[in-house]
Amino acid sequence: MAFLKVVPLEEALEVIESFPLERRVEKVPLEETLGRVLAEDVVSPIDVPPFDRATVDGYAVRAEDTFMASESEPVKLKVIGEINAGDTPTVELKPGESVYISTGAPLPKNADAVIQFEDVDREGDEVIIYKPAYPGLGVMKRGTDIPSGKLLLRAGTRLGFKETALLSAIGFSEVKVFRKPRVAVISTGNEVVLPGTELRYGQIYDINGRAIADAVRELGGEAVFLGIAKDDKDSLKELILKGVECCDIIILSGGASGGIRDLTSSIIGELGKVYIHGIAIQPGKPTIIGLIDGKPIFGLPGYPTSCLTNFTLLVAPLLRKLLGRESEVRKVKKRLAHKVFSVKGRMQFLPVKVEGENAVPILKGSGAVTSFIDADGFIEVHENVEILDGGEEVEVTFFG
Ligand SMILES: Nc1nc2c(c(=O)[nH]1)N[C@H]1C(S)=C(S)[C@@H](COP(=O)(O)OP(=O)(O)OC[C@H]3O[C@@H](n4cnc5c(N)ncnc54)[C@H](O)[C@@H]3O)O[C@H]1N2
Ligand code: MOO
């Protein structure tokens, strides 16, 4: 089947934008939230610490009892008990009294300072104090770390270990995050086999299946690799239908161009609707975008570099939107290392390697897997530009 109509990239992105996919929210146990994106603002329901607590091992005192203490005239206070971390103290300090207290234990009533044991002497049931303590010494007051009612994290925050620690501190055992989109990944082609298989003449190892599945996971989605479809109608149809059943999005690679055995487009048309078949970009012209049962299906080119460039351009923005990570596209300005010639009439995405302040073009072509392996990202060369000079400022969009 020939290309139906090659459209500009913007049109392809508009079609994807119009697809009926919604960001969904789910509650997950705290231990599963690392790397996920918060779907709710988090306000502390408690004071942290929840009680006035000792920050040192020593003696809890009424600071005013020690104001007259000096090396020459130390103050002696009676030690009336001991409080350990986890205790609920029942004692109440009266003038002239103190208690032994351990780090993390709640202060007894009327105490407002804790003097570390290294600074005092103990004689029997008395503690000897050589310098005044001030109110608050050795104490962390209730709510001074995190006050109840404080807004701690905004919806849209990606949770790293600092954020999960914060959620632990305020007692959250479950958190609302954006649901991971499930993405079915299918490789196609009679010549494509999985690593672990001996290569026969004419065969190659599947690169795209691994690359797409892991690119989906790297973005925070869930990938389901369904295997390699043969270049026949039944095999392709079976895996596509499996994908529609198990997943929110289906990605195929290979079989997208207009060759006689490139069946993908006609099968998608049969099962649903093909919106786009051919985009005016290089690499990645033979790309199919469709919908089956309301689920977006992408037919990406077979060449790994074309496939991954198009994944980055078309699929990654959709996944980011569903995951609440729109703002996380990494771009940097660099200088082109040397002159390059571009294809006229197609927007070109040229793989480049970043070396210091330079973007070094990789010119092996989209048929080489090392074009994208060696590349850090790509630069855009507009359709009406034929030559970019060395030293020109370019913007590099990173893969992943
Ligand atoms: N007559 C035309 N032929 C081609 C055109 C064209 O416009 N007219 N475009 C070329 C371009 S550009 C590309 S890109 C490819 C893409 O074609 P397909 O998407 O149909 O891909 P295939 O033909 O199935 O494969 C292309 C190439 O990639 C290898 N491949 C496929 N799948 C994998 C995989 N999972 N892992 C690793 N390598 C894979 C496959 O063996 C082929 O060598 O079409 C050009 N032809
Ligand atoms: O469109 Mo192909 O994807 O140029 O390499």
Describe it:
- The protein has 400 residues and is an alpha/beta fold.
- The protein folds into four domains: 9-24 and 180-323, MoaB/Mog-like domain (Molybdenum Cofactor Biosythetic Enzyme, Chain A), CATH 3.40.980.10; 34-48 and 147-178, Alpha-Beta Complex (Molybdopterin biosynthesis moea protein, domain 2), CATH 3.90.105; 53-140, Molybdopterin biosynthesis moea protein, domain 3 (Molybdopterin biosynthesis moeA protein, domain 3, Beta Complex), CATH 2.170.190; 331-398, MoeA, C-terminal, domain IV (Beta-clip, Beta Barrel), CATH 2.40.340.
- It has seven helices and 28 strands.
- The protein has helices at residues 9-17, 161-169, 208-219, 233-246, 264-271, 304-323, 369-374; strands spanning 25-29, 42-43, 53-54, 58-61, 75-83, 97-101, 113-116, 120-123, 126-129, 139-140, 151-153, 174-178, 182-188, 192-193, 204-205, 222-229, 249-253, 273-277, 281-282, 288-292, 295-300, 331-336, 340-341, 347-355, 358-361, 377-381, 387-388, 393-398.
- It has a six-stranded mixed sheet, with no helix packed on it. Strands 16-13-17-21-20-18 form a six-stranded mixed sheet, with helices on both faces.
- The chain is elongated, with a radius of gyration of 32 Å.
- The mean pLDDT is 93.
- Residues 282-286, 301, 303, 306, 366 line the site of molybdate ion.
